[in-house]
Amino acid sequence: MKRILIIAANQERMPDPIPPIGATYIAAAVRQRGHITKIFDACFSADYQADLAATIEAYDPEIIGLSIRNVDNVAFPNVTCYLERYANIVRVCRERAASAPLFIGGSAFSLFPEEFVEKLDVDYGIVGEGENAFCTMVDEIDQHGRVIGDYADEAGVVFPGKVANLDAGVNPALDLLDIDRYFAEGGSINIQTKRGCVYKCIYCTYPVLEGTKVRTREPGLVVDQLEQVQRDHAVDFFFFVDNVFNYPLRHAEEICEEILRRELSIRWTAYISPAGCTRELFALMKRSGCQSMDLGTDTVSNSQLERMGKSFDVQKVYDVTDWCHEFELKFSHSLIFGGPGETWETVKETVHNTLATRANAVIAMLGVRLYRDTPMAQIAIDAGVTTRDQIGIAPLFYISEEIQDGMVEYFADLSATYKNWIVPGIGKNMNERFFKRVRARGVKGPLWELFDAVDYEGVR
């Protein structure tokens, strides 16, 4: 039996702090093997280096796992890379627990494993879903004093493959986090019902990280988890953080039906793709407690939808948003401007059509962050914009040449006109003090729900 310290490195809290679900799955798995397990969560730490040093001194971990979720904030042009924070955390671990083997994993690491291993002083890096591999290696260290299996390549990187049966694992160890604070300041608690994605959005990393085959959890076990978190922490608002909640359609319906069967008094939100949605699903979602949804729309121009690899058209966006209004479901659009073939005509078409849907909020990202092994990366490489080696930890964005000049100014003006348009890259309509006051009053759910839908004279 070993003392394991899992470090959740994220400190981003705008607009909300997000519980580190990956770290809690790893912690739960290793704890189930009989090891003493603790999570150091940097999210609420004012001085994460000093607090981590104090935790290591008091806990004296024998093995450390560092979980890194994001490479950067993906917010062009004011983009922030997190490598320095991760390097500081590793340095503290080496100074305070020099003999403890240091593992690294998480989605950020899995996107650029070789580069992170090169830049950070770690012993092993686990790419992708690390529950099984980490547990096996920890058990070997416990029994033999070292890892004896031939798991890693020469750089120390392990590629364990996907977890085949998500129901055979464990629920995330939320008890190792300050869930009460996350719920108070974040407005919801994360629930994952599946991994993998069948869609072909050209920029997206989910197929790279989780695979192109969807692996679902049994709906009854998902609702068991909802009940447990509600019982243990008095949580009544949940966020289904699957990349797409509504695929497979029947799986989403079964979760809603199980919530209704048990008569759970909860509210929830989710990421929804317009592809494959039905009016019947929205009616069922509403009855089961759905309050809002974040639509992964990306663009509302048919030509751009095709170029971005989306699986729906503008009319489907209109249908879906009409159903949202019919069932009084609040909704936001997540948009990406500057993809391949983007022109000022398609930008203005998307803006016009988005306004026509009367969304509660619009989150507009400028430029497409490039990640290796995505179709978008290959498009950029083929166009001579970059090379594969240049795509890495340092943030690199693709922006169509046709809109590069004047893009930031255009969206600054647009978000000044429409207060429900949030542009993270230029900090527009992201009032941290206001958000904190709202949370202090006990408001739950996504904060964009507070925005009022804007009527637009050019509606369809």
Distance separating the two termini: 65 Å
Helix amount, in percent? 25-40%
Number of beta-strand segments? 17
**CATH architecture call of the largest domain:** Alpha-Beta Horseshoe
Q: Largest sheet at a glance? A: 7 strands, parallel
Rounded to the nearest angstrom, the radius of gyration is 22 Å
- CATH topology of the largest domain: the name is pyruvate-formate lyase- activating enzyme
Mean pLDDT: 94
Total number of distinct structural domains: 2
Structural class estimated from helices and strands: alpha/beta
Low-confidence stretches: none
Strand order of the largest sheet: 7-10-11-12-13-14-17
Count the helices. How many? 18
Name the CATH homologous superfamily of the largest domain.
tm_1862 like domain
Tell me what portion of residues adopts beta-strand conformation: 15-25%
Shape summary: globular
